[in-house]
Amino acid sequence: QLQLVESGGGLVQPGGSLRLSCVASGLILDYGAIGWFRQAPGKEREGVSCISSSRSSSTDYADSVKGRFTISRDSAKKTVYLQMNSLKVEDTAVYFCAAALFRLCDRASRTEGYDYWGQGTQVTVSS
What we know:
The structure is a single chain. The chain is mainly β. Helix content is 0%, strand content 49%. The strands form two sheets. Strands 2, 4, 5, 6, 9, 10 and 11 form a seven-stranded mixed sheet that branches. It has a four-stranded antiparallel sheet with strand order 1-3-8-7, with no helix packed on it. The protein is globular.
């Protein structure tokens, strides 16, 4: 089994930055991919970014965050990070991380195939 815990959310002004963390723990030693998702009130969940746990460390980003967000991994700590810069009001959402055991990261927009989900962390961008 695998448990995911997100942290790092908060309130920032437009143009500010936040760094989200997703820490994995449990009996499962590895996973195929970690994805970051977000859901704003009244909207469906959307994929933000993903990263593979494989040697290639492939990554992908939603068009709306390219150039502003960066996903990275610290395998020793079983932690995946999402560095969010130049935040916009429309980035406001609950951000979730999820682990896929049997597939790699190909498209950030893909939501299927994730086996474990964290509880989410709130990101609010407001002036």
